[in-house]
Amino acid sequence: MAYPSETFGENVFSLSRLAETLPKPVFARFIQQVQGRTTLDKDTADAVAHAVKVWAMNHGATHFTHWFQPQTGTTAEKHDSFLTLRNVTTNGVEEVRPLDIFSGSQLLQSEPDASSFPNGGMRSTFEARGYTIWDTTSPMFLRNAAHGTQVLYIPSVFISYNGEALDEKTTLLRSSEAISNATVRLLHLLGETHVKRAYTTLGTEQEFFLVDRQLYNLRPDLRMCGRAIFGAPPPKHQQLEDHYFGQMPSRVLAAISEAELELAKLGVPIKTRHNEVAPNQFEVAPIFEEASVAVDHNLLVMETLHQVAHRHKLKVLFHEKPFNGVNGSGKHCNWSISTADGENLLEPTAHPEENMRFVLVLVATLDAVHRHGGLLRAAIASAGNEHRLGANEAPPSIVSAFLGDQLTEVLNSIEEGRSIRVEPPKRKGIKVGGTVLDLQVRTLPTIARDLTDRNRTSAFAFTGNKFEFRAVGSKQSPSFPMVLLNAAVAQSLNELTDDLTKQMGSRTVPSKDDIRAVLKIWIKRSKPIRFEGNGYSQDWIAEAEARGLPHIRTCPEAFAQLLDPSHSKALVTQGVLTQEELHSRYHILMEKYCKDMLIEANTMHAIATQGILPAVFAYRKELAESLVAQKAIGVDAAAAPEKSVLDKSSELTVAFQKEVGVLAKTIEEITSAEPLEGAKIAAAKLFTLLRSLGDKANDIENLVGDKYWPYPKFPELLF
């Protein structure tokens, strides 16, 4: 046993470890490079490579790998051995000797095949060269390999031969730089010239399901698609609301605890774990970190949970909606902006109406979400997330922002040029005094109250001192949503700074009147994005459209937002993505959506023809034989109970078989089309067809006897 603080980061090659092994001048040059003040020279790279090799091999490492994030939603790695053979001459005799070598050039870059990863047409088969380049802002670490050995992981970016970003991380680092520059520019205008750098913080709440691996192996849809494309809901699931925050099953707790220990050694700060709302659904959440490192750590969380669950004979499901009828899984991305000194710029303080810096950053963020709601909708679009959005505590596809009563009043007072109103208590028995709740029980202390309530139907909700982007899907890498959000906010911060500069005229620092004058315009302009009510209501759909907010229903519509000039300009002018990279990502997303839908369609067709229909035919045969036997002994077959079941099965089977035929034709239509057109056909026809087939399969499942049904049912999978 050890204290968590003693275990934390023991497999990470941290800056403190590097400082212990490098001469002070070399370490100082390296820090300058990390801070972007100089480029990394060969001597420094060689020194770092030697230091990390010694540390890694002393801990059992035999290989190293550049660990990167291609546009697949997961990570990639190629292991290279430290072992090298060199010709050595001894006493005039030449021989081959084995040596353990790791040079600075090997640390700095590697060369994977760029045409084999999603590239959106940037790389052809005959243009295969690509590069992975060490990301010095994210620490190297060790992970277990076979037989007690370790592999040294080097976080990296992935670019093409011509320098285009082929990964998720390059653009994230660009967006982080853009928002840092924009934030520092605003703060300098406000007189805070000591601030040299700002960064976005991110905390990712990771939801997932855990199911028995043997049962998982018996469900082709779970194995192929990550979700149950058919399955009748059990009589009891989440309706008693007894699973959320309940006691974890011992098998699950053992698996998650083991995963947490491995993650702690990797420097991933998991803070909470708990049961989620649906049966067999769980969540882990980390402490906030700088966004680029937080993304690395979230991907490590997913990979580690997958590996540890396997050892416990469990299977982790990250799909956004693995089981219809119960809650889906999200990845709530808690986002804020901080200075290099660790000061949260979205901390409202006790009197937010007097904290003009906070209000400026808040309003710039709201403006970005208002202007680029379509872009954020593209960030969360996927074949899996389309099943989740709009129900069971998941936000709808209409992007809106929630602030809560108090911050709404702060903005309204500035817009209307008046003082803050003190609202009376809304609920009897609870006295609200500032941010304190008096529970009227002498044995209970008064408690601090956040400035805002929480709204689970809001896609982008302010929760105390950060925004929670709730609409991100559980299987997604958080990188792309953060890239688009960062770029949008950076644009608004820059334009807000421009307006303040014009307003203040010859003054060196804007006055409160200058700030309020500009804020009044910006608050009014972004007001349509603010919504405090029920995002699930039909009234909200009509109201949102009346406000001019985009209601984007399908993935192809969402992906098209990337190419809309009103959005693409923000990305290009901030230096986050080039036009070519944007077009590349549009093609990749459309093609992936089309492939995901085709995989589901072909899986459903195979299950229908090879499993469901044979099962119902066998059941019908037994019913028919029973009727024949009864008729032979003089029983009125028309009055036999088997007759009504047989008639019902005929009705259901004919309807199901007919739609299976339609499915086969739709698959052929999509397969013969170009990927972009195929994606549009899939959205228009396949999505609803698969849902209809799933419902019909569920009706058959509820009719056919258990002994005939070839697949584990939801009661077994969820309990």
UniProtKB/TrEMBL annotation:
Stored Pfam families: Gln-synt_C, Gln-synt_C-ter, GSIII_N
Keywords: Kinase, Transferase
Domain GS beta-grasp: residue ranges: 62-163
Residue ranges occupied by any GS catalytic domain in the UniProt entry: 168-612
One Gene Ontology molecular-function label: kinase activity
A Gene Ontology BP annotation from the UniProt entry: glutamine biosynthetic process
Family statement: Belongs to the glutamine synthetase family.
The protein, known as: Glutamine synthetase/guanido kinase
Species this chain originates from: Caulochytrium protostelioides
